[in-house]
Amino acid sequence: MHINALQQTYKNKTTIMMIFESLVLCFLSLLLLSPFAISEQCNPQDKKALLQIKKEFNTSITLQNLWDPKTDCCIWVWIQCHPTTNRVIGLVMKFDEPSNDIVGHIPSSVAQLPYLEHLEFNNLSKLSGTINPVISNLKHLKYLVISFTSISGTIPSFLSRFQNLEVLDLSFNKLSGIIPSSLSQLPNIRLLNLGNNKLTGQIPNSFGSFKKPGPEIYLSNNHLTGLIPASLGQIDSETINLSENKLEGDASMLFGNKKRIMRLDLSRNLLSFDLSKVDLPKSLTFLHLDHNYIYGKIPQVLNKVNALERFNVSYNLLCGEIPQGGDLQRFGVFAFYHNKCLCGSPLPKCKS
Ligand SMILES: *[C@@H]1O[C@H](CO)[C@@H](O)[C@H](O)[C@H]1NC(C)=O
Ligand SMILES: *[C@@H]1O[C@H](CO)[C@@H](O)[C@H](O)[C@H]1NC(C)=O
Ligand SMILES: *[C@@H]1O[C@H](CO)[C@@H](O)[C@H](O)[C@H]1NC(C)=O
Ligand SMILES: *[C@@H]1O[C@H](CO)[C@@H](O)[C@H](O)[C@H]1NC(C)=O
């Protein structure tokens, strides 16, 4: 009995010792590994690429004080990491207003961030050169935004190969040349903004074949010429902005009472078609047709477009009485003035 009890105590002691020892070991290894295993989530290759980008933008005062190599890149400004894999999925460099801080070209090291879903350069006035072809390696891109920069050159057709791309915003740059027709092959595009550049040529015929219903399309303030392709009548986008170009001829294919279009801006072009013949969608909230050569009468149905918030048909060749008894009068004289022979409130009475 006595010996047995003694053995038991001895046994217990070794177990306790063993537990204690392993705890100490555990604690020691935690201490040793902690800077890597616990606080640092950033993938070392991603960090290397980001530090290379910092080097390429070495005149940036902002960056010199950020992106400290001793800290975890997943907490750096402008960086987003994936919640489970910790790979860098977002490089979103933007300022609230145009900034001269970042000088140079789109760094080739962005291609060393293979899991990027969101790449954005916004309000970087001194970012110049062309759209770097290495971007084509970023197969996971969902959002590509290069806006308010000095990026020039043409829109590369490789952009049409991004299977996951939802937003392509290249507005307010210095891009020139034609719009690649292959962009209509982007299977998941929701927003295509190429506005405020120096793009030339026609709107591609293929733009009628965007996957239904079709993305919001902004091509405003470019140098686009020629006819709007008839095929564009096949898409069912909520927004189409073609304002401030040199587009001619018919635009009636963009209307139709079965469409869900809400915002249609065709102002400041050379368009010429009969407005009496178009079937206005009741979903419209924004209709700007000013500064064209549009003729005919204002359709009666416009009185029934209840949600209309913005409306302008000034500086056209419209005639006849403005539909009365509805809501159109609230837009005031300046929404109707400078036409051929429009009359009735809010303009002067029609001569009978
Ligand atoms: C910035 O980088 C360029 C080349 O990458 C180099 O020539 C220049 O000396 C660097 N400037 C500073 C301040 O480090
Ligand atoms: C870029 O600057 C413009 C003009 O100041 C501002 O309206 C816009 O919101 C800025 N863009 C971003 C992404 O902050
Ligand atoms: C269309 O683009 C022009 C800039 O060229 C802008 O002034 C206008 O507000 C835009 N319209 C819509 C509906 O977005
Ligand atoms: C319509 O456009 C004209 C010409 O650009 C402008 O003067 C007027 O203020 C605009 N009116 C409305 C209501 O938008």
TrEMBL record:
<feature type="domain" description="Leucine-rich repeat-containing N-terminal plant-type">
    <location>
        <begin position="44"/>
        <end position="81"/>
    </location>
</feature>
<keyword id="KW-0134">Cell wall</keyword>
<keyword id="KW-1015">Disulfide bond</keyword>
<keyword id="KW-0433">Leucine-rich repeat</keyword>
<dbReference type="InterPro" id="IPR001611">
    <property type="entry name" value="Leu-rich_rpt"/>
</dbReference>
<keyword id="KW-0964">Secreted</keyword>
<comment type="similarity">
    <text>Belongs to the polygalacturonase-inhibiting protein family.</text>
</comment>
<dbReference type="Pfam" id="PF00560">
    <property type="entry name" value="LRR_1"/>
</dbReference>
<keyword id="KW-0677">Repeat</keyword>
<keyword id="KW-0732">Signal</keyword>
<dbReference type="InterPro" id="IPR032675">
    <property type="entry name" value="LRR_dom_sf"/>
</dbReference>
<dbReference type="InterPro" id="IPR013210">
    <property type="entry name" value="LRR_N_plant-typ"/>
</dbReference>
<dbReference type="Pfam" id="PF08263">
    <property type="entry name" value="LRRNT_2"/>
</dbReference>
<keyword id="KW-0472">Membrane</keyword>
<dbReference type="GO" id="GO:0016020">
    <property type="term" value="C:membrane"/>
</dbReference>
<dbReference type="GO" id="GO:0006952">
    <property type="term" value="P:defense response"/>
</dbReference>
<dbReference type="Pfam" id="PF13855">
    <property type="entry name" value="LRR_8"/>
</dbReference>
<protein>
    <recommendedName>
        <fullName>Leucine-rich repeat-containing N-terminal plant-type domain-containing protein</fullName>
    </recommendedName>
</protein>
<keyword id="KW-0611">Plant defense</keyword>
<dbReference type="InterPro" id="IPR051848">
    <property type="entry name" value="PGIP"/>
</dbReference>
